[in-house]
Amino acid sequence: MRTEIIAVGSELLLGQIANTNAQFLSKELAEIGLNVYYHTVVGDNPVRLESAIKIAKERSNIIIFTGGLGPTKDDLTKETISKSLGKNLVFDHSALESIEDYFARTKRTMSENNKKQALVIEGSTILKNDYGMAPGMALEADQTIYMLLPGPPSEMSPMFKNYGREFFQNQLGIQDKIVSRVLRYFGIGESQLETDIQDLIDGQTNPTVAPLAADGEVTLRLTAKHTDEKTAQKLLDEVERKINVRVGDFFYGYNETTLINEVMAQLVKKKKTIAAAESLTGGMFSELVTSLEGASQVFNGSIISYTNEVKKQILHIQEETLAAYGAVSEQCAKEMAEQVRKLLNSDIGISFTGAAGPEQHEGQPVGTVFIGIADKDQTNVYALNLAGSRKGIRTRTAKYGCHYLVKLLNEIE
Amino acid sequence: MRTEIIAVGSELLLGQIANTNAQFLSKELAEIGLNVYYHTVVGDNPVRLESAIKIAKERSNIIIFTGGLGPTKDDLTKETISKSLGKNLVFDHSALESIEDYFARTKRTMSENNKKQALVIEGSTILKNDYGMAPGMALEADQTIYMLLPGPPSEMSPMFKNYGREFFQNQLGIQDKIVSRVLRYFGIGESQLETDIQDLIDGQTNPTVAPLAADGEVTLRLTAKHTDEKTAQKLLDEVERKINVRVGDFFYGYNETTLINEVMAQLVKKKKTIAAAESLTGGMFSELVTSLEGASQVFNGSIISYTNEVKKQILHIQEETLAAYGAVSEQCAKEMAEQVRKLLNSDIGISFTGAAGPEQHEGQPVGTVFIGIADKDQTNVYALNLAGSRKGIRTRTAKYGCHYLVKLLNEIE
Questions:
Q1: In DSSP terms, which residues pair with A3 in a beta bridge?
Q2: ipTM score here?
Q3: Interface membership of A312 toward B (CB under 8 Å)
Q4: CATH fold group of domain B2-171
Q5: Which sequence spans correspond to the domains of chain A?
Q6: For residue B312, which residues of chain A lie inside 8 Å, CB to CB?
Q7: What is the chain B residue with the closest CA to A15?
Q8: Which of A274, A329, B257, B386 could form a disulfide with A325 if both were Cys (CB 3.0 to 4.6 A apart)?
Q9: Residue ranges of E strands in A14-161
Q10: Which positions carry the signal peptide feature in this UniProt record (chains A, B) (predicted)?
Q11: Domain topology for B259-411
């Protein structure tokens, strides 16, 4: 099956937005085994759209359209397709009802134009729009499958995920359920992780194992297919186990979670409070924690000691420590964590000090980082040498702090 | 002139990346008056690429290709185009030299494959690649203009901006220089700003005035065309003056600047140091400041007082203030700014307190915000009622802090 995605909308040709719909659909289609051969973008112009349809018919068996289903005069996708197929547009009563519902629910006034959105190509299967007014459509004609989806990604993606995908699976007799799971890793480079599990990546066809690296983290996307969803989940469990026997030390969570979410979950679970002393990271760790709802349950506050004076006056770091070892040192990180824990009356104190660049700090090369974590019994200090930009070093430092915190919190009662 | 952009690359059809190159080029082309009628994406497949070229030739006068200029076997763009035009590929010596240079500079070993990148279509104008190895090409054949650009955006965009645009201007006899200027505003909504200058937006054709809103800020992009660049700049000056007579109170800077950049520039210029007491924003302001190189010149540190205990113990906010007015109050914001200024021995103290949501804080509705700014002579407190998500409220609070700081710093010597 040769698939083509046609996006309709002059805003794309003016460069106001990127065609992220085509990206989303291409990924989704690859998962159900459909190969995309072309993306086309055409403006809100019926003549050019008609010619794009003609070209697509000749080279593709499946044509998916996004955009041009709105209520205005510019929106001509279904009008142009129905004309090119020699089919009529008819009112779909359930679509009309859900449009009326939508207006009632959002307390807006419905215009005559909006009714136009309930017109559908005769004989098509309606794809419900749970987040907007334009229904989607799918039909087979002249051995070609046509699918029409709305343009706004917030409407298009759930429509495809919930209804469009199923249409293809039914139409093409695909019995398999497809289940995915994302495994998240931190503290290991992409190439190291890939080397460690290369045989599993190469040898696996069901589930497939696809690595992706971003922002200092590595994820593995596992995708299994089976007619029975439970069996598909079991296939995922098995390969996950095999993978984590080798790289489980760096695993921190599933799917959409983040390191700071895991820190928060552990702090809540273990009923611990935390405070931070930030130098290098300048508030980044605190900002991450407080970006989460309910942060006040576990986070007392921080002292951002960007100068040695503040380290001495507010954090009460010993003059001797700074004189003998400097601010970028294991000793300073240790005292910072212990002091902030005590001063802010918290169960845990975490500290960040180092040289973010672009210049050396106290003679320490850029990327030298110390992270301290203190609880009532002990203090651990972690030394790192990070490469990269100022931004990269700061971001990864904050993430390493989360990573060590999760490890420590996992170990305590 | 009908323009088409053809992106070559299977990674696009697999949904691994979005076609942001087409977006970038569409914007750039619109600025020099070229209308884009189609975007096409095709994989690394010579047969399908050839057919895409054939279709494009029939419907477009200008065809711009991105991608497929790399050293691997998959990279076939120039091979396929030269074949379809009946032209040879020849070694370009300056391209070969700059490839050799590139390897010498980055201390990597050059492979035989890399030499392939110096092959160009005979008779084409070479577009220099300042950020990579693959040279771009441009040529006219059969009344059609062809331009070949590399796929990585970091190579493609500077190549087009610096060389590609000029090629079109010369080729099409466009005498006009095009100059743009972005004006940045904060503290005024998009619809208000548009209402205030609607007649200027509608009435202006040279320069054009295009508003855009993002992250609580509004920008106006002014674009002027003239054969003489100085005259084009004067046209921009004139319309800028007209606009800022009306909305200049909210103007804060040009082009790529940010509010925090303006704060930093003012602090450096006025030789002032700053410290922050953050409650609501939880470190966001401090993180913004310290994300900038040279922050240590002006930033002493912060106290993030997320609990009342920390406000009392570390910031020494009076028990009576918290009892009588609460932490989310003008009085508390005032004391926080004054205390952090004094404790951290800084010229300026800034404070942020409020209710970020999702729940009320001390009975104050979500979005209630107080920002205090103290210097040696006085303390100003600003009260805001912000709508939106937790993230939106926190982000705009930090930005409002920057906005007020810039206003105050502008006024002092």
A1: A36, A62
A2: 0.79
A3: no
A4: Molybdenum Cofactor Biosythetic Enzyme; Chain A (3.40.980)
A5: 2-171, 177-254, 259-411
A6: none
A7: B23
A8: A329
A9: 35-42, 62-66, 89-91, 119-121, 125-127, 136-141, 144-149
A10: none
A11: Maf protein (3.90.950)
